[in-house]
Amino acid sequence: MIEALHYTFFQNAIIAAILVSIASGIIGSLIVVNKMSFLTGGIAHSSYGGIGLAIFLGLPIFWGATFFALMGALIIAFISFKQRERIDVFIGLVWAVGMAIGVVFVDLTPGYHGDLLSYLFGSILAVSKSDLIFMAILTLVILFFIHRYYREILAISYDSTYASLKGINAKLFFTLILVFASLTIVAAIKVVGLILVIALMTIPTYIAEDLSNSLYEMMIKSSIISITFTLSGLFLSYKFDLTSGAAIILISAAFFLLYLAFKHFFIK
To answer: How far is 256 from 261, CA to CA, in rounded Å?
Structure first.
């Protein structure tokens, strides 16, 4: 295993794992406390439309996925302000339509699409330098956003009505959280794939929430737990020649079940 550290692609994979884990740990915490897991699922799967369109037009898949994920986030944010009581219906619609658009465009594109599988199930060992730059910038922007607006984010996360009465633009921050979630999802797709990305953003966060006394502490612990799971899955996938995304999620799920068992039997 030590020899793997000498390879540039493996070094890139480790950096990507750390960057995405920090971003998903922070944004995943906001998703969980704001009860937006289903919203994020809709955004994640809508990005498949961008993947299919990019393949059809011969454009970079990464940018197609980013565009559709952002559009999905903005559509869901707009609808949630207008018809919040029916938001589940519209999320399901965005989810299904995005996937359907992707499937149709892939069907219309002749030939074999090897890149498609890497976006569905993850290919962290194929992370490029441009991917790392995107992940690094995204992580830095998220860290700045949390540092600068932590009080506002805390207020809207636990009592949006009170936050609005205090003059905080709850709609703006809600939209920004969804936008950051969409960008984090696109970055995480490279690590664990579209199908498994929500698990990466929720499993570490659930454990961290149970072990934390504040949102700030939850974000830190979630990022650390996510890094542990991602690096463990990365080394496991390399050693046994497994799909990296699946290995990372299985590691996460195994530790999650062990944590639940330990909590049930030993913590009263």
So the answer is: 9
CATH class given for the domain over 2-261: mainly alpha
Cα–Cα distances in angstroms (integers) from residue 145 to residues 138, 171, 186, 212, in the given order: 10, 16, 18, 21
Coil, strand, or helix at residue 57? helix
Residue 202 structure tokens: 């929720």
Record the tokens describing residue 27, joined without a space: 């944004």
Report which of 231, 258, 253, 267 is spatially closest to residue 10, judged by C-alpha positions.
231
Say which DSSP state 58 is in: T
Buried b (16+ CB within 10 A) or exposed e, 181-194: bbbbbbbbbbbbbb
Residue the block writes with tokens 């929430």: 209
pLDDT digit string (tens) for the chain, length 268 residues: 677 778 898 999 999 999 999 999 999 999 888 888 777 778 888 898 999 998 899 888 888 999 999 998 898 888 877 766 667 777 888 888 999 999 899 889 887 666 677 777 778 888 889 999 999 999 999 999 999 999 999 998 888 778 888 888 988 998 999 899 999 999 998 888 887 888 899 999 999 999 999 999 999 999 999 999 999 999 998 888 888 888 999 999 999 999 999 887 877 5
The model's pTM is: 0.92
- What DSSP line would sit under 106-154, residue for residue? HHHS-S--HHHHHHHH--GGG--HHHHHHHHHHHHHHHHHHHHHHHHHH
Work out the angle between the directed axes of helices 215-240 and 197-210 (0-180°, nearest 10): 130
